[in-house]
Give the backbone structure.
Amino acid sequence: MLTHPAPPHPGTAAGHQATAEAVLALLLPHRRTPDGPHDAAPDAFRPQLRQLVPAIAAGEPIRFTLPGFPCKSPNPAKVLGHLPDEGERLALRFLDGLCGRIAAVHPPGARVVICSDGHLFSDLIQVPDPHIDAYGDALRALIADAGLTRLRLFDLREVYGDLPYDDKRARVHARYAPSLESLRSLTRGGDEETLRLYQGITRFLFEDTVSFTGTRSALQRACRTRAYGVIQRSRAWGELIAGHHPGAVRLSIHPQPRGSAKFGIRLLDAPDVWMTPWHACVLQHHDGRRELMRRADAERLGRLVLRQGRPSHFEAP
């Protein structure tokens, strides 16, 4: 008679590894990847498994950090305004729900710290700091009003209090940012991850610049320069987050290759792996499916829906 091996005991190293693999299996369907179909083999995600095991072994909630939710794009062809809308609401509910599903395989569950980084880049992305404050405050209200108890927001106000934002940015940059020369050597030396990030950010900056009076080629040059600044501060923010949230599993809203220390995660369906709720708006299809797209496209396909008197999303007929 055939027999099957007994499953690993939960309190053993093998049991902890099995639980980590079960958590990973819940993450994989939502992976944001630059490299084709999702690879479900656990061996392709050893960094994440190593990050998951300590909290599992300790019987504690798994902590994720997710840099993102900075502010709305300043391009009115992409978004409905400078405050969160249905895109952020759905993304926050998705993250909270994912934590809840993790509790089914790891009873202490999981928590996500959303590391809102808008103030870090506001001068480079040309969004006023008061708009970013309003966006962050509205995110906190969304989390509280919806009872999303597994989420919390972390930003520069928590790190440096009431210092002027220019001073906050300067402190983070001086302490944590890599040199411009080191980044240029990576992009010019063929480092695929850095080059892909540089190209993606350059494209976003170009699309989001709405008041440039020079030539197209001059704007492209300016955006390439600003893209390096965004990457410097992004990496500085990552170092700061790691110091403030040691032991957390690092998520990313950018596409990440297999084997990366960061796990790229899709928040909502979108036709572009780089698209996020803060660079787009939601179109709800007649079958209930929700999709991120540029405002200019969504308003051709649906009617505007208001929530509490504010633009929320579009709804297809």
In short: The two ends are 59 Å apart (CA to CA). Confidence is low (pLDDT under 50) at residues 1-7.
